[in-house]
TrEMBL record:
GO terms for cellular component: cytosol. The keyword Transcription applies. This is Probable transcriptional regulatory protein HMPREF9098_1254. It holds the Pfam family TACO1_YebC_N. Residues 5-76 form the TACO1/YebC-like N-terminal domain. Belongs to the TACO1 family. SUPFAM superfamilies: YebC-like (SSF75625). Keywords: Cytoplasm, DNA-binding, Transcription, Transcription regulation. The keyword Transcription applies. HAMAP family: Transcrip_reg_TACO1. GO terms for biological process: regulation of DNA-templated transcription.
Length: 242
């Protein structure tokens, strides 16, 4: 994925997320709750919970909301029982799509996901049809940073790799469970990431432009707008113009 395309896609993603802040809070609360349920309420001993809390703080979620979600997960407060589901399929141009959901009603969720695919030119596939193309990975992106100093600090903090491109974007790759620790260590070393997350990264990509890119964006938006959808991952690289 070219540096410019990567950066343009990330900036576009952030703009859409800002417009959906209310839904982001709901998704984060679900993630915190299930992370606490599965791994306990101590973020120092539960990397998934720590990651969810980092995202909540980055989104300026009030600390009381975060704590209530943890308490629901650990059973200290009564809450809804969520199950995790993953759906796989194909978008425009055969681009791979994976959709992670948390729901209290599997029948409703699969119907909603299938409808979003069908209505927007995609197809819901079978389990495993595209998962082989994705790797679970953490990343942090930096611009205007000293490459040598950042690389040294990142590798010392436990990062797996550091990649710089011709556009001046430096990407730090981590194991999923190490993401929060590496992010904190780099902040303490004076490096603040422009963007970062733990994601499912495609090993091969499908580049789309013009009308195809717009159609693919509509499919992604339709899936992300579903109440039960937590994350949408795709192999599509979209050139949506300026």
């Amino acid at each position: 994925m070219a540096g410019h395309s990567k950066w343009a896609n990330i900036q576009h993603k952030k703009a859409r997320q800002d417009a959906k802040r209310g839904k982001i809070f709901t998704k984060l609360i679900k993630e915190i709750t299930i992370a606490a349920k599965q791994g306990g309420g101590d973020p120092n001993a539960n990397p998934r919970l720590r990651l969810a809390m980092e995202k909540a703080w980055d989104a300026n979620m009030p600390k009381d909301n975060v704590q209530r979600a943890i308490d629901k997960g650990t059973g200290n407060l009564e809450g809804v029982e969520y199950i995790e589901l993953r759906y796989e399929g194909y978008g425009i141009g055969g681009a791979a799509v994976m959709v992670d959901c948390m729901t209290d009603n599997k029948t409703r969720t699969v119907a909603d996901v299938r409808h979003a695919f069908t209505k927007n030119g995609g197809n819901l596939g079978t389990d495993g049809c595209v998962a082989f193309n994705f790797v679970h990975q953490g990343y942090l992106l930096y611009t205007n940073a000293d490459e040598d100093a950042l690389m040294e600090a990142a590798l010392e903090a436990g990062a797996e790799d550091v990649i710089a491109d011709e556009e001046g974007v430096i990407e730090v790759i981590t194991a999923p469970t190490d993401w929060a620790n590496v992010k904190t260590a780099l902040e303490q070393a004076g490096f603040k990431a422009e963007d970062g997350d733990v994601t499912m990264r495609p090993q091969t990509t499908t580049e789309l432009s013009g009308a195809e890119a717009e159609k693919m964006q509509k499919l992604i938006d339709a899936l992300e707008d579903l109440d039960d959808v937590q994350n949408v991952y795709t192999s599509a690289v979209l050139d949506l113009g300026d």
